[in-house]
Structure formats: structure tokens, C-alpha cells
Amino acid sequence: MGLDSFKKFQKEKIVEKVEVKEIWGYTRVSSKMQLVNNSLEEQRIEIVEFANKNGYSLKNMLGGTYESASGDFTRKEFTKMIVEVKNAKRKPFAIAIKFISRFSRTGGNAISIVNELVEKTGVHLIETSTGLCTDDEKSKLEIYNKLIDSRRENIDRLEKTLPGMKSLLRAGNWLGKAPRGYTMRGKKVTDYTLIQETQSITINDEGKILKKAWDLKVRGERDYLIQKKLEKLGLKITKQALSEMWKKPFYCGILVNSLIEEPVRGNWKGLVSEEDFLKVNKTLLSGKKVADSKEYSKSKICDSRPLISFLRCECGCLLTGYVVEKKGLHYYKCQKCKNASFNAHTTKKSKLVGLNNSFENLLSKYTLNTPFIEPFKMQLNKLFGTMNTEAKDEMKSLVSQKKDLEIKIKNLDDRYFNNPNFGDEKYNKYVLQFEADLKEIEGLIELNEKKLSNHKIHVEKVVEKIKNISDCWAGGDVENKMRIQKLVFPEGLSIRAENREYLTNKVNGIFDLIPVVTRGYEGSKNEKT
Asked: Which end of the chain is more exposed for a tag (fewer CB within 10 A), N or C?
């Protein structure tokens, strides 16, 4: 009997269906120059060809930009990829990368990320240039070795380049992209038209406008008003960008870098002097200190204590106030300093002049008496003339913006009437926007024209207001007193407890002129002021 009779007892072989495995691709370059050189496209093509050749289905392509490999989760696209993989309901078989070094150069940290992807998430890593995949233990070890080698290469490269980088910095050269407002030329720039042998950093047109921002900030202007003025000059900047700019020593010509121990003077011209940069930052820090300590006036402002929330002790703390009910006497007090209590009014029994009276005396220095009115008007006209320079610059920029918008509208009309395929919807969308912008610009031009033409009227109004500023303060109610205080001393006042001397941080420019005119007149009545 032959064996063929037993074939019917043999089980048929089950043919398994081969499932096409899905993979995701990831591309990355470490510099903008590589981005320009089509390195990303080469990586993408390599991954696509690898998937087609090896029977994989490429479902997703991530990365696609330049990010430094110095840290893993400081890279936005890398972090996005890891999060998407972990959150995906249908997880890919693997992430495909042309070279393992494109995944990470952090060594041990990279290995732990790959290990977590493989062991916990069930997603492998494939290097398409070699075909290595973490689904095989031997290949996994090779991939881990390559990640370590990438880290070693980074360290070796850093050891070779670091001394040169430090030397460049100590010589006052800038590393990286020049901050806003400057144009950098040299060997390491992305724009080939700016390539030259030695580095030079110059102020560009935007920088000339930002210089005005610094001038305004030094004068104590608030950020939102600076923003508005810059916008009138054609420069849009966010509040955050403006806030960051005040803290960058680059803008006063100083180079600060973690690679060198001490700051050095850079080989570029600053937009602001070193002194004014430090002054701005001192103001910012003092403002932050007040906010952080949650400093509040501990007593209500009243007619008898108008200097509360305005006057500070020399230590920086705002003065509070209290009243001795039995005697009906009002006092100012510093909550931090001992013996820093001040009587508000001068009385028969008080040994020292009250702060309200001494403040009135201080204001009398800024009172404009009749003999000085005409010289003051002359000086005030000069001041308005200087201020009008800024208005003229604004006007020049606004007129230029108006001209640009008119050209855009004309070009849009030409395209609409000469091209039947342009479309009504597209035309209406742009023409409405351009016309709205033009209307806004024309409104600003009208306001500026008034500024430029009406300064003589403003001079008369100013003189009328400040002829008797101390009397106005003494005779006004608490609200008017507070307005006058803030007008003359916009940053407030401090007082030295030991001798009750007022310390003025800043006086309104208009009032600052009065002592100058007065001294000039009193110095010599025969000389012109």
C-alpha cells in the first residue's frame, strides 16, 4: 500500500495574508543653508523610494524644516512627531529616516526615546540609507551605536569650533542672525548678496525708526504709545517684541554671550547710549519690584494728604498717611523706615515745614512770572519746533504710505478691468481693504497737519495754564492737585527723611524750561535770553 492513501489526512497549509505595513517619514536639517540646498527634498525622495522598494505604505511625512539637534524636546517638529505617534489610534510600524543622525544627536537621551518608542509604543525606527530597523536586535544595537557616534561627532566638532567662536566673540563679532533693525554682512549669512570677507553690522531703515523708539523710551514714554508712533512711521512691532528689545544690550553696542566670561563692546553702532540703556532697564526693574511687592497705599487720599500714591520715601516705598483725631493733624509716613514721619501742614507748634507747604514752595520754582512770559514763549516755540521734527518725519512716512496705497488701488483696478478672469470677489476683497487703510492714513495725515500748524495756539494755552501753577495746586481740590502733581513730575517724587529734601527723577520738559529762562533773565538783564 502506497503512502498516497494517507494524503487525505494531511491538513492543508494556511496561506497567510501579507499585510502592507504603514510607516511615517521624518526629515530634518540643522541649518537654513541646508534648507536652501534642497537637502530636505533629497531626504524625502530617499524615504519615498525606500517605502516603494520594500513594500511599505508611506502614510505621513513629518519634520520638513531646519532645527538644531542640540536638544530633543526643544525642537518643535521633533516634539510634534513624538506626540503624534503616541496619540495615533492606528500606530505606524516604524518612523523612517534617511540618516539616524537626523533623528537626534543627544546620545543616551536619544537611545531612551527610541527604546520607549519600540518597547512601550510598539513603533520602530528605520534608517533608509542602510536598511537598519529596530525590529531586529542586532540592527537595534547598530542604531544605538550610531546615535552614540552622532553625539561623539557633535562633541568633537564643538571642541574644534569653540575656541574659534570664543575668539570671534571677544573681538566684538556677532554670532547668529543680527537683531531687528540691523543688516549683517560677512561669511556666514544666508543672503548671498551680503557675503563678504569680514563681518560688518549696520543700522538699516528699520533701525532708524527703532532708534526713535529708544529715544521715546528714555524720555519715559509708555510702550503702547511707542507702538502707535512706530506704526505711524510704517513699522509694526508687537508689545512682546518691544519689551524684549529694551532688555537686549546689543542695542547699545554691547555683546553678551554665555560662551565668554565678560561682556565686550561690539563692532557696531548702538541705537541708544550705554547710559540710557541702563537707565531704561533700571526703570523697568524698579517698576517690576513695585509690582512684585504688591505695594499699595494703606490710606485713602484726601484733601489734607494729596501726596499719597505720588510721593515716595528715599527707600522707594510709597508714603502712606494717617490722622491724629484728637488734634486733627494729618501726617505722611514711610512703612519701612524708622523716624520717617512727616507733618502734612505747617502749624504754629510744628518744628518743621509741612510736606504740603514745602511741595507748594517747590512748585513756585516752576511758576512763570510776568517778566519771563515772552522769553519763555520764545523758548517754548523752539521746543515745539523740535517736537515738530518728529511730526514731520511721521508726515513724510504717512504721505509715502498713502502714495503706495493709491498705486496699489490703481494697479488693482487695471488688473480687474483688463483681466476678465480676475473676478469680482477677489477685487472687492482687496479694494475694500486698501480703501480702509487709505482712509485711516488720510485721517492720521489730517491730525499731523493740525499738530504742525497749531503750535502757536498751544503755546498760548500752555503759558496761561502754568503762569500760577503753585496757586492752582494750593487752591484746587484733591483731584486737581493730583493732576498737577502728575503733570509737573510724571514719574513722581522722592523725599529724603533727614532733611526733607525733594528728589526729582524727571520734570515735564515744559516746566523744566522755566528755571532756565528765569536764570538767564536774572543773570543779566542787558543780555538777550
From this structure: N
User: Does residue 306 belong to any structural domain of this protein?
Assistant: no
Comparing CA positions, the residue from 246, 226, 248 lying closest to residue 237 is 226
Instruction: Kindly provide the residue ranges of all beta strands, DSSP E only, lying in 256-376, ordered along the sequence.
Output: 264-265, 311-313, 320-324, 329-333, 341-343
- Range(s) of the domain holding residue 441: 370-463
CA–centroid distance for 11 within its chain: 76
Please check the confidence at residue 529 and state whether its pLDDT lies above 50.
no
Q: What is the DSSP letter of 257?
A: -
* CATH number, domain with residue 126: 3.40.50.1390
Helix 223-232 vs helix 239-246: crossing angle, to nearest 10: 110
**Of residues 470 and 251, which shows the higher confidence score?**
251
Percent of the chain with pLDDT over 90: 31
Please compute, for residue 256, the number of CA atoms within 13 A of its CA located in the half-sphere on the CB side: 7
Signed CA dihedral, 310, 315, 320, 326: sign only: negative
438 domain-assigned: yes
Q: What is the 3-state secondary structure (H, E, C) of 350-366?
A: CCCCCHHHHHHHHHHCC
Does any domain span residue 10? no
Specify whether the CB–CB gap between 466 and 511 falls below 8 A: yes
pTM for this entry: 0.45
Identity of the residue numbered 42: E
Extended beta strands in 70-191, E state? 94-97, 124-127, 132-133, 182-185
Tell me, yes or no, whether 254 and 286 share the same domain: yes
Judge if 68 and 109 occupy the same domain. Answer: yes
Residue pair 299/313 in contact (Cβ under 8 Å)? The answer is no
Q: Which of 422, 439, 463 is the last residue of a domain?
A: 463
| Three-state SS at 499 | coil
Q: Which residue has the cell 537626523?
A: 102
pLDDT tens readout for residues 267-325: 999 999 999 999 898 877 665 543 333 333 345 678 889 998 889 998 888 898 899 88
CB neighbours of 380 closer than 8 A, spacing ≥ 6? Answer: 459, 462, 463, 510, 513
Interior angle at CA 218, CA 215 and CA 222, nearest 5: 95
Last residue of a domain, one of 291, 324, 341: 291
Nearest to 320 by CA among 344, 349, 297, 286: 297
All three cell numbers of 228: 502707535
